[in-house]
Amino acid sequence: MKHGILKASPVAAITIGVLLLLSKPVHAADSGSIEFGTGNRTQVVRVGSQWRWDQRWWESNGTHIGGYWDATLMVWHGSRYQNVPDATQNLGGIGITPVFRLQRDSLKGPYAEAAIGAHLLSDIYDNNGRTFSTRFQFGDHLSVGYVFNNGVDLSLKAQHFSNGAIKRPNPGVNFLLLRASYPF
């Protein structure tokens, strides 16, 4: 049993999201990223662009809290659609997330980050006994990573998606992701 990747209105939403991401010149973004992950019998692939904030908070001992905007496009591939073995569900999605990062003033070396953002899925997620009631989801994450001297940024991210009890049921889903980004 296969479930369609996108419906008409989500295609329009994703197209608008892509156009908004591309409406700024490419050089306006500070970095690009790719993420791979899994959770609840669902694989995730996500690409994104990041725009660093100039603001620094709580500067102390060579560290500060900074952050960036993370705009993403994602694909989820569930392998147990409607809790049926070997039935698949493919979803697309867009997201925008303000990310707060505790980092060194040099912007190199280890860091920790936390975030919560807004995401729109192309359809209702229904995989492995977890059925969302809305396409809109909050995506919050905690991650640790390392920025190398050449600017390459590698991290491990734990992410939770939920609609924040806007509508029931609200089972949520958790993913563990590996992320790599490179500065422009």
From TrEMBL:
Molecular function via GO: acyloxyacyl hydrolase activity
Keywords for the protein's UniProt record, in alphabetical order: Cell outer membrane, Hydrolase, Membrane, Signal
Keyword Translocase: no
EC code(s) of this entry: 3.1.1.77
Catalytic activity: a 3-(acyloxy)acyl derivative of bacterial toxin + H2O = a 3-hydroxyacyl derivative of bacterial toxin + a fatty acid + H(+)
Domain of life per record: Bacteria
Membrane topology reported for the UniProt record: Multi-pass membrane protein
Broadest EC class assigned to this enzyme: hydrolase
GO cellular component: cell outer membrane
InterPro entries linked to this entry: Lipid-A_deacylase-rel
Compartments in which it is found: Cell outer membrane
Site feature (Critical for activity) residues: N163
Annotated Pfam families: PagL (PF09411)
Leader peptide range in chain numbering: 1-28
Assembly description: Homodimer.
Its job: Has lipid A 3-O-deacylase activity. Hydrolyzes the ester bond at the 3 position of lipid A, a bioactive component of lipopolysaccharide (LPS), thereby releasing the primary fatty acyl moiety.
Family indicated by similarity: Belongs to the PagL family.
Protein name: Lipid A deacylase
